[in-house]
Amino acid sequence: MNRPLVGTLATAVLGAAALVGTVGTAHAAPQHEAHHPKQHKTKAVDFAGSVALSNCSGSVIRMPGSQENDPALVMSNGHCLESGMPGAGEVIVDQPSSRSFTLLDKSAGRLGTIKATKIAYATMTDTDVSIYETSSTYAQIAQKYGIKPLELATEHPAKGAAISVVSGYWKKIYSCNIDGFVPTLKEGDWTWKDSVRYTPQCKTIGGTSGSPVVDTTTGKVAAINNTGNEDGEECTVNNPCEVDENGKVTVRKGINYAQETYGIPKCFGTGNKLDLSAEGCALPKPAATRR
Predict the structure, then answer these.
(1) Would the pTM of this model clear 0.70, i.e. be above it?
(2) Helices vs. strands in the chain: H and E counts, helices first
(3) What angle do CA 157, 240, 196 make, to 5 degrees?
């Protein structure tokens, strides 16, 4: 895991929380043209809409059907939760939270703080995501700070797509491409499905956990940054392994990954309210509601 950065936590917890990171020096972002000779039109990606958490990165997000007066949502990783990482198979819904998020402008300047009222949804099963409902509406954020949310894409991301991983914690943007997709990504006790693999240029590090992965062609969020293989180990914490449809295991030391988000909008209805029973919603459900 790209580790949340919390110096007071025990070493074991820090290690387990490292789901997003290659330890090393952050490098300058490469140019998209190296991977896209056809010169696709791209949208400028900046920090507007991104947030810094106490230990991770995140973003203010909207669903395609979100309205200006809906409570704004903030997305980060499940392993970034203030209460600690969910266990394998654990799903958290509607849990009160007063977590604060530092809102950034397009140049990564600090604008102010918005606060959560609850964790609407969080899990590390099949995906690695936390979605907080805040006490601010999109309209209030726009009026006070001049910031609009990032919109979640509703289509599966494409192989080769140019992407930008926007870290509010580090105030750094990593640029690369989608190298491909992993049927099953395993790390420690956790398993994720249909994960995004980056090309080597996205050398995400601890603290980049929860960063939105923005498709630079559409300007929409295609995935959420969450992990990387640090040491070349197989399927251990901080060393995820790829498992294909035939069960073959592949280890790619130094390669980083994200979890797709295109299915999330189907699980949120009117008023940005979570509805895990909605048609097409495939997010894991809490044990008590599984059928």
Answers:
(1) yes
(2) 2, 16
(3) 5
Other beta carbons within 10 angstroms of residue 11's beta carbon come to: 7
- Tally of CB atoms within 10 A around 249: 12
Q: 85 is in which domain, residue-wise?
A: 50-152+267-286
Instruction: Report the CATH number at residue 281.
Output: 2.40.10
Structural domain includes residue 7: no
Q: What is the domain count for the chain?
A: 1
Q: What pLDDT was estimated at residue 288?
A: 72
Rounded CA separation 40/63 (Å): 25
Residues 160, 90: Cα–Cα separation, whole Å: 33
Going by pLDDT thresholds of 50, 70 and 90, the confidence category of residue 6 is low
For residue 38, the model assigns a pLDDT of 44
The per-residue DSSP string of 152-178 comes to: BP-S---TT-EEEEEETTTTEEEEEEE
* Rounded distance between C-alpha atoms, residue 24 and residue 43, angstroms: 29
